[in-house]
């Protein structure tokens, strides 16, 4: 698991191989580094550590220290994770003796805290410590005294020094977990940045009251708590590993667990490559899920989620059925309810609109508001169903505990004796034709009408009944035969039973659409081999067509910005598609959530989608028109790389074919005008949809937003058009500091959007040209001024 996380970090913040470096000696006043694509860095004398800039996506950088000789370039300290630096920013040891990180306009972004002045020189030391030294050769400031989430051999943390976990795997801003030696001498781990005085936020303590003074990571690889005189009080990690043979680090990870890792300094003799990091210590604490119990707060995971212990004792946070992640970039930040809550207007209303999902060994410890005797699980379920405030009921030993939102301190653990009954709103689908039961009901109704009608009408209805029966039989026959799939795609075929087991009987729903539902699964019982299994609704002609379209459209594609189709099930009436699992959900969740995503990350996502569409339109053997580009159909993987998904409406073109006639497909609001004019459609319909998506990425809001104070801002593309022609593009991003400081790129992106959404499809550029515009490979010409622009949107 450690190597997987490090691989993700490598993808996220790659260090260019062409990086320049000042390698030896002290850094004199006036020395500087500039944040750009050819980042320079300051090396330690042995070349084992570097201090400099690391990229966070496109055009955003942060100060860091990392292991230079390890191919993963593992980061051990970061300076401005909460305030990323735009391209062109500079870290400088000024001539007046200060270390300052400034943006391209000279605005200060970061400097050491507390403030340091009178610096004579700086140095990156071989132990991984960056120091600022005064005239008398005394260290005025050092990174060892201001750690972020990692400590290194020879590092000592004195009383009051805090170590903060980062926000998530890929976000180096401060998270909520931290530890420090308190005034009482205890080394304590806290589940919140601002702990309460009652100690309920502490989830692990050293129990060294009044004697603990410093935390030491010695050169033998031990991390321990010591008294003022250096006496060992308590071992935190006990393994001894020679620093001469191994690089070492100990880290409070984003999940709140403290772990120690080693990495061999020598190459593996058989592979000739460096071996990755290995975890050598027991995690502290060993079970975070049961260790964090807060009187006020969310617990180990966020509100409305629950904690389970995965492989390597690593906690995992998940949402119960009917809930989805609040922040798709951080699974530990809680979940929100997806369905309308139980209506409390009136007694016992809507009881027929809800059902329960059963979760054994699960509880939310601090969310009770009422309990009562319940002889059976069914009686507990009925009590919760009759109570509009009840979101979850816990049945345990003849007692029913009612929980209301928000749910806190959720955990699924064998030590939990109760069974959680999760209340969810039933999907209103009873009117749809779903199977033999409805078919029999239909025939019974027709038969009843026959008995009460005239002879002529009876004969007529008898004929209709026969034809309906023949239709059902014909459809049953067709659906029971597997669809012919081209086996040359090289995809794996699965049995229905295999996918049932992989999804634990289709237990964890990830989402749903017009033609089916998507569930999370694990192939071959490997905890990290997650997949998304799309179960198409059976017995409908459209779902059959979607199955054929998705397999045909994506089966032969191979591009990093397209979701990979791993295989399918084509057995009897069962049509299932197995995709790679995208851990960060949809772009819609990411873009329109509670917090605004990073501007530079949005830039990268726009380029990802453009590259994927360019590949579909121009580089496939069979050119593909997606027909339904929207944020809900863009998924994000673990490193927030955007990938196009959901090819159920896609249209495949023959070789040398550029246009086709088809019925309206897609989602209103993203549809090109030609869909409504009975005109042949081409790949330019995807260009139009991408234009709407692009302006949503720029402004971080939906294209249509009826509840705004200014009427001109209701339709985003209208507003963007007005702002561009008024010369006031800054208004679109005025509340976004990162985007505002990158206004030239914002203007270029807005101009690109206006080209994409031209009413005349001939005027729209190709996706290949759009990609070049976004990446600054070509200039963006001034978009045409069209009098019909507003009315055409």
UniProtKB/TrEMBL annotation:
Residue span, Protein kinase domain: 504-778
Coiled coil: none
Catalytic reactions of this protein: L-seryl-[protein] + ATP = O-phospho-L-seryl-[protein] + ADP + H(+); L-threonyl-[protein] + ATP = O-phospho-L-threonyl-[protein] + ADP + H(+)
Binding, ATP: 534
Major location (coarse): membrane
Signal sequence annotation: 1-21
Native organism: Eucalyptus globulus
Name of the protein this chain belongs to: Receptor-like serine/threonine-protein kinase
């Amino acid at each position: 698991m450690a190597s997987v996380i490090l691989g993700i970090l490598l993808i996220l913040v790659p260090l260019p191989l062409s990086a320049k470096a000042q390698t030896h000696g002290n850094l004199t006043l006036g020395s500087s580094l500039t944040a750009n694509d050819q980042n320079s860095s300051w090396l330690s004398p042995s070349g084992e550590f570097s201090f400099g800039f690391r990229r966070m996506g496109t055009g955003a950088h942060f100060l860091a220290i990392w292991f230079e000789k390890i191919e993963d370039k593992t980061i051990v300290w970061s300076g401005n994770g909460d305030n990323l630096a735009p391209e062109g920013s500079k870290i400088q040891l000024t001539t007046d003796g200060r270390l300052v990180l400034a943006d391209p306009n000279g605005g200060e972004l970061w400097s050491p805290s507390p403030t340091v002045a009178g610096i004579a020189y700086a140095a990156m030391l071989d132990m991984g410590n960056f120091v600022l030294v005064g005239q008398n050769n005394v260290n005025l400031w050092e990174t060892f005294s201001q750690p972020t989430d990692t400590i290194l051999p020879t590092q000592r943390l004195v009383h009051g020094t805090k170590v903060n976990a980062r926000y998530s795997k890929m976000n180096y801003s401060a998270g909520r977990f931290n530890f420090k030696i308190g005034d009482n001498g205890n080394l304590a781990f806290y589940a919140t940045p601002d702990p309460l005085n009652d100690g309920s936020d502490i989830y692990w303590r050293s129990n060294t009251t009044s004697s603990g003074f410093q935390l030491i990571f010695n050169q033998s690889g031990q991390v321990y708590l010591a008294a003022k005189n250096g006496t060992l009080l308590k071992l935190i990690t006990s393994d001894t590993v020679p620093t001469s043979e191994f690089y070492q680090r100990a880290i409070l990870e984003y999940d709140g667990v403290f772990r120690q890792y080693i990495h061999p300094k020598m190459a593996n003799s058989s592979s000739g490559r460096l071996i990755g990091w290995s975890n050598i210590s027991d995690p502290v604490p060993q079970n975070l899920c049961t260790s964090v119990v807060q009187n006020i707060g969310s617990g180990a995971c966020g509100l409305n989620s629950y904690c389970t212990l995965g492989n390597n004792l690593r906690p995992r946070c998940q949402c119960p059925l009917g809930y989805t992640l609040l922040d798709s970039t951080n699974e530990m930040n809680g979940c929100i309810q997806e369905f309308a809550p139980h209506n409390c207007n009136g007694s016992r209303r809507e009881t027929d609109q809800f059902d329960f999902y059963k979760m054994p060994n699960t509880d939310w410890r601090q969310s009770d508001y009422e309990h009562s005797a319940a002889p059976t699980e069914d009686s507990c379920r009925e009590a919760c169903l009759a109570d509009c405030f009840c979101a979850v009921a816990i049945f345990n030993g003849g007692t029913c505990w009612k929980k209301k939102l928000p749910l806190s301190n959720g955990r699924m653990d064998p030590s939990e004796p109760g069974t959680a009954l999760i209340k969810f709103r039933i999907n209103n689908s009873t009117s749809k034709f779903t199977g033999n039961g409805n078919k029999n009901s239909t025939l019974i109704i027709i038969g009843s009408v026959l008995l009460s009608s005239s002879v002529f009408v009876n004969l007529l209805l008898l004929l209709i009944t026969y034809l309906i029966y023949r239709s059902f039989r014909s459809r049953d026959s067709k659906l029971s035969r597997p669809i012919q799939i081209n086996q040359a795609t090289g995809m794996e075929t699965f049995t229905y039973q295999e996918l049932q087991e992989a999804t634990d009987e289709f237990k964890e729903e990830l989402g749903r659409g017009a033609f089916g539902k998507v569930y999370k699964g694990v192939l071959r019982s490997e905890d990290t081999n997650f997949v998304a299994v799309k179960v198409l609704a059976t017995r409908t002609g459209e779902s059959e067509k979607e199955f054929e379209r998705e397999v045909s459209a994506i089966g032969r594609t191979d591009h990093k910005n397209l979701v990979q189709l791993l295989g399918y099930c084509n057995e009897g009436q069962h049509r299932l598609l197995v995709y790679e699992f995208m851990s960060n959900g949809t772009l819609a969740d990411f873009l329109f959530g509670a917090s605004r995503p990073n501007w530079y990350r949005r830039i990268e996502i726009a380029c990802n989608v453009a590259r994927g569409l360019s590949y579909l339109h121009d580089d496939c053997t069979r050119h593909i028109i997606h027909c339904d580009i929207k944020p809900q159909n863009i998924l994000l993987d673990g490193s927030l790389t955007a990938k196009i998904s959901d090819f159920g409406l896609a249209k495949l073109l023959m070789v040398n074919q550029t246009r086709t006639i088809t019925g309206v497909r897609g989602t209103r609001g993203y549809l090109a005008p030609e869909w409504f004019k009975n005109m042949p459609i081409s790949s330019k319909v995807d260009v139009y949809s991408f234009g709407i998506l692009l302006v949503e990425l720029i402004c971080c809001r939906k294209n249509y937003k009826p509840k705004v104070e200014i009427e001109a801002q209701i339709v985003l593309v209208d507003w963007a058009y007005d702002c561009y022609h008024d010369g006031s593009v800054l208004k679109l991003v005025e509340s976004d500091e990162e985007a505002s400081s990158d206004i030239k790129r914002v203007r270029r992106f807005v101009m690109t959007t206006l080209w994409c959404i031209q009413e005349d499809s001939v005027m729209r550029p190709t996706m290949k040209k759009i990609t070049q515009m976004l990446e600054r490979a070509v200039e963006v010409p001034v978009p045409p001024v069209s009098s019909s622009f507003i009315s055409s949107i």
